[in-house]
Structure formats: structure tokens, C-alpha cells
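Attaching the record inline, Q. Sequence:
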Amino acid sequence: MTFNRATEPDWAEPVFVQVGMNLPRAVRNANEALGFLANQWKGSRKKHAFAREICAAAVLGHVSQATAREAFIQAADEARMVTCAPRSH
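Structure, as predicted:
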């Protein structure tokens, strides 16, 4: 599930996620996170559904981009994906 919104704001810092031996992928906003959650996700799905809901809400403007970014990071960490997510201040 992805939404086509030309004005989708990027996160202050992208989240780099690596699945298996694939090259790391930069996820720059809630819309890209939704695509990753729907199509490239591997591993635990305990926080996966919550991250999808939060990212969808961010795309629609119901929650902040920072909240969506944090939900995505937490889900990826729980799934033991290799991530590099500089923390925005």
C-alpha cells in the first residue's frame, strides 16, 4: 500500500534498512515506509501492523512524520533488520 502524494514531506533524516544480503535501502518518508512494509518486510510482524497504521496516518496528515519514522524504526529493530537511523533532534 502506497499513496501518491506529490507533497509527501521527507523525514529530517532517512532510515537505512538492510534485509539479508541486499544493499541497504534508504527510506525517506512515511509513503516509502509503507511500500517497504508491504513489499520488502522480512522477520517479526509484532510491530509491523502498528508501523503500517502509523505511516498511513502520517501520509494522510493525522500524525507527525517524526511519529511515523519512530514507529518504522521500532518495527525494523524488533524484526532484527540492520538499520542505520540517525536520530533527529
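Strands lie at 15-18, 25-27, 82-84. The radius of gyration is 12 Å.

More tomorrow.
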